[in-house]
Structure formats: structure tokens, C-alpha cells
Specification:
It holds the Pfam family RVT_1. The chain is of the alpha+beta class and about 325 residues long. Among the domains are: about 80-95 and about 180-210 and about 240-325, 2-Layer Sandwich (Alpha-Beta Plaits), CATH 3.30.70; about 120-175 and about 215-230, Roll (HIV Type 1 Reverse Transcriptase, Chain A, domain 1), CATH 3.10.10.10. It is about 25% helix and about 20% strand. It contains ten helices and twelve strands. The strands form four sheets. A four-stranded antiparallel beta sheet has the order 7-8-4-9. A three-stranded antiparallel beta sheet has the order 1-6-5. A three-stranded antiparallel beta sheet has the order 10-11-12, with no helix packed on it. It starts with 18 loop residues before the first helix and ends with a strand.
Length: about 325
């Protein structure tokens, strides 16, 4: 469950163009030589995609579950079985590897940012949110002097709750970059030869699954009207966070056959000459993944679990049992 981000040169940047616009302008080239691209006309009579309503989200319009299809007698592993047998991996904070040490560039001067003013209407919600994060072990009060103090941005969400965002721009300039390759659609193509079934899983509060050591935790100290706090888990906004998380997730599950990871999205691919074979293959891979998540401390989001679909959106494309197309 991560914010969308694009890392081009290692510096913080903001997405100004979507993938389709970038391709149309010739800024990004995608190699489709080995893909079977499905045109819109091909999709009109395709039972693999369903339009639920005019208000359906892109994800809803790009997925179709075997569990509700005419082939439902061959469903095999169900969501009820998964959430019952693996209930523990859908709860609590994950623990992806040992405590992380953030490294600073040499001869960097620490920055102590002033506490930003918070609207009166947001002070009580912010106080409650801080208390909740502290109770969960995600942040901790700081009383001793610290070299770094970061600012925060508090935004109100549509449901009335608030979002707490760290603004560590001076710190980001001082942090050393993390180098780790990110997968592309071309990396997944070799797995799709006989693909007929897909599942897509989402890590629960992905970055928070990476614990920080004490020195790194103090670097993330931030000021509020109620005092200073530090992050005990990797916070959103830290420049190397995306690749650090990707590296740790890959180390945990990358060796599993038919399992791919991009950011906090995990894809499970079921292959076979028939749908029944693909379901059997998928279920075996899914159980291996769930067992590995339990062993390595990876937590999953049960509310964003697409189980056994014949089409799923992934890395700017829709993967289907009939081929691949751009979203």
C-alpha cells in the first residue's frame, strides 16, 4: 500500500505525465515485440473483462474472478481458506529484515526546521493520530536534543480522518541513494506463456514493515505543536525508501517461481494447458508465497487482494489469459 512514485535519476521528482501520454509523446518506448496486444475491438466480446457499471474503477473494469465465473467448480483455494489459515499475515506490523541504517553523505550540515502551524480544526485529530501511531510502535516521543528536525504536512482525507506526511526535503538531500533494479513488464513476459490465472496482492503499510535503527530513527525526528517524535519504521517521503523496501521485499520472496514484485504489489501467475491445470499451479504457488510471507514477516492487505482473476492491471498494463495490453 504505497504512494505512486517515479524514480528517474535518484532525486525526488513528481509525476507530470502518465505512462500512456509519455509513450504517445515519444518520451518512453515500450518493447511490444513479444507481447500480444489486445485491441479494444478484441475485448468487446471477451468474457475475461467485465464492466460492472459506468462508475466502475479502472481496476474493477480490468479484473474478472474465476470464483464468480461458470468455471467456479474448479476454483480450488478460496479467500475464506486463505484468511482462516493465514490470518496472522493480514494483521499487525511486518518485519522485513533487520533494523535499517540510513547513511548520510559526508560533511552534511544538519537542518532543524521550524514547527509548521496547524489549523485549530486539525489539532485534535492530529493529536489522536499521533497517539495511535505511538501505540502501534510506529513513532515515539523524543525528549533529548536532536541534530535533525523535519517538518510535517497534515492533510484532511475525504473520510474525515487525517494524513500525516513527513516533509524531509533537507534530509533527503543528505541521504545516500539506494541502488536496486525495478522490474518492468518485459521482465514478466517470459512467465506468461501459458498464464491463465492471476492473483494480485498488496503489502500492508509497506514501508512501515522496515524497522529503523536508533541512529536512523533520530534522523527522522519531526516537530509538532505537541512536541517532537521520531519514526521507528521507515516513513513515507524518505528519498531512498522506495528502493530500500523493494530490495527487502525481493530478498524475501523473489526466488519463488511464478511470483513477481513491483513496489508493494505482488503478482502470482498460474500456468497450464487448461484452466484446471493453471488453477492447480496457481494454488501451489500461492501457498508457497503465503508460507514465505509468514516466515519472513511480510504482512498483506486483505482488502486489496485480487484472487484468481483471468485479468489484472499490473505495471501500466492489463495481464489476461489471452495476452497483454496497455491500460
Amino acid at each position: 500500500d504505497l504512494p505512486e512514485e517515479t524514480d528517474i535519476d535518484g532525486e525526488n521528482c513528481t509525476n507530470l505525465l502518465g505512462s500512456r501520454a509519455a509513450q504517445q509523446m515519444g518520451l518512453v518506448n515500450v518493447n511490444y515485440d513479444n507481447m500480444k496486444i489486445l485491441s479494444e475491438s478484441d475485448q468487446k466480446g471477451d468474457s475475461h473483462t467485465t464492466m460492472t457499471s459506468s462508475e466502475s474503477s479502472p481496476t474493477e473494469r480490468s479484473t474478472h474472478s474465476i470464483l464468480t465465473s461458470p468455471e467456479s467448480s474448479q476454483t480450488g483455494l478460496t479467500m475464506e481458506q486463505i484468511t482462516s489459515e493465514y490470518k496472522d499475515i493480514f494483521e499487525g506490523l511486518g518485519q522485513l529484515g533487520p533494523k535499517l541504517h540510513l547513511e548520510l553523505e559526508e560533511n552534511v550540515k544538519p537542518v532543524q526546521q521550524a514547527v509548521r502551524k496547524i489549523p485549530e480544526s486539525m489539532k485534535d485529530p492530529l493529536r489522536s493520530h499521533l497517539a495511535e501511531l505511538e501505540e502501534k510502535g510506529i513513532i515515539e516521543r523524543v525528549y533529548q536534543p536532536t541534530e535533525w528536525i523535519n517538518s510535517i504536512v497534515v492533510a484532511k482525507k475525504s473520510n474525515g480522518s487525517i494524513r500525516l506526511c513527513l516533509d524531509p526535503r533537507p534530509l533527503n538531500k543528505a541521504l545516500k541513494r539506494c541502488h536496486h533494479p525495478m522490474q518492468t513488464i518485459e521482465d514478466i513476459l517470459p512467465e506468461l506463456g501459458k498464464a491463465k490465472v492471476f492473483s494480485k496482492l498488496d503489502c500492508l503499510n509497506g514501508y512501515w514493515q522496515v524497522p529503523l535503527d536508533e541512529e536512523s530513527s533520530l534522523l527522522t525526528t519531526f516537530g509538532t505543536p505537541f512536541g517532537r517524535y521520531k519514526w521507528k519504521r521507515l516513513p513515507f517521503g524518505i528519498s531512498p525508501a522506495g528502493k530500500i523496501f523493494q530490495s527487502r521485499l525481493d530478498q524475501a520472496i523473489d526466488d519463488l517461481e511464478g511470483v513477481k514484485t513491483v513496489a508493494d504489489d505482488i503478482l502470482v501467475i498460474g500456468n497450464g494447458d487448461s484452466l484446471a491445470e493453471a488453477i492447480t499451479d496457481h494454488d501451489a504457488k500461492m501457498k508457497q508465497l503465503l508460507n514465505r510471507c509468514r516466515e519472513r514477516g511480510v504482512k498483506l492487505n486483505g482488502t486489496k487482494f485480487l484472487l484468481k482473476q483471468t485479468s489484472v492491471p499490473y505495471i501500466g498494463h492489463v495481464l489476461t489469459s489471452a495476452g497483454v495490453k496497455p491500460i
